[in-house]
Amino acid sequence: QSNGVTKVTIDANGNVNTIGQVSTTDNGTIVTRQNVKPICINGDMQVAQRGTSLTGQTGTAFQMDRFGFQMDTFGTWTMTQADDGPTGSGFTHSLKWDCTTADTSLGAGHFGLCHYRMEGQDLQLLKKGTSSAEKVTISFWVKSAKTGTYILELYDVDNSRHISQAYTISSADTWEQKVLVFAGDTTGALGNDNGNSLAISWWLGAGSTYNSATLQTSWGANDSDARATGVVNLADSTDNDWYLTGVQIEVGEYTASTLPAFQHEPFGDNLARCQRYCTAITKEASYGPVMMAHG
User: Fold this and answer.
1) Sign of dihedral through CA atoms 154, 228, 131, 7?
2) What Å distances lie between residue 288 and 81, 112, 281, CA to CA?
3) What is the pLDDT of residues 73-105, one digit of tens each?
4) Which secondary-structure segment (H or E) carries 274?
């Protein structure tokens, strides 16, 4: 076990099953091997099948593979795959939000967020809805011209339950790593199917509909006005931007010093996993690419 999570099991047929990274000893040398695919797909923002830039965005769409955005009257934005990442991290790309038309006073139901959605059948290892529910650690690198309080939320779509945590961007235009640990939820199992069961949302601004009660920092039934309490309004100036990369999801509780190394997948493997959700079919030069996407 590591951090309370069973890493290696052997089933009745002698198959060895592992979670995360497992270290083994070869002639006295500790070797860390990647044994499974990372839970988060395209967390290094390498794949952008829909194109590297979307301008004039005011609603809901995807730009980077697997990472969508959702807005309601939250200014106007350009979303790009930026050639920018924290020095020495191995991350050369990031998702960038750039404000082109500001909204200095958000109405009650207005908001903006970036989301990552996951299938329930990929999350059964969380044991959600049982007395053995696992903690989850979410790590990411973030940068913005606007300092202040931001919100990261886990939303259980199957059971309409959620939990949020605040994080702070302390220095403008500086890459910062955030490592947030969320409690396991003993209520509400996730469907063991390909449905959208759990959403991670990076809130970037919200009106009073989502931002007026005490922040919901423990698992509970949906309370809309407690989802993003205290979040900045990133849309309040055209000087504002927001970058995201290095998104990592780990089962168990970790700190910045104990977090397993990010699993950098070969581009082809990363692309293949993304193509489960979006496939670009290239035609002759006189025609544009055809996109088939479903989340």
Assistant:
1) positive
2) 20, 30, 9
3) 999 999 999 999 999 999 999 999 999 999 999
4) helix 267-274
If you search the block for the tokens 């979303």, which residue do you land on? 79
Confidence band for 32, pLDDT divided at 50, 70 and 90: very low
Which residues are CB-contacts of 99 (< 8 A; sequence separation ≥ 6)?
Answer: 75, 76, 77, 234, 235, 237, 238, 239, 240, 241
Question: Residue 287 class from Cβ within 10 Å (0-12 exposed, 13-18 middle, 19+ buried)?
Answer: exposed
**Percent of the chain having pLDDT more than 90?**
82
Which amino acid would we find at residue 253?
A: E
Question: Which residue in the block uniquely carries the two structure tokens 């235009």?
Answer: 173
What stretches of 92-159 adopt beta strand conformation (E)?
A: 94-101, 111-119, 136-144, 148-156
Tokens 């309040």 label which residue? 236
- In the sheet where 53-57 sits, what is the strand order? 53-57, 76-82, 94-101, 241-251, 136-144, 176-182
State how far the Cα of 28 lies from the Cα of 137, in Å rounded to an integer. Answer: 30
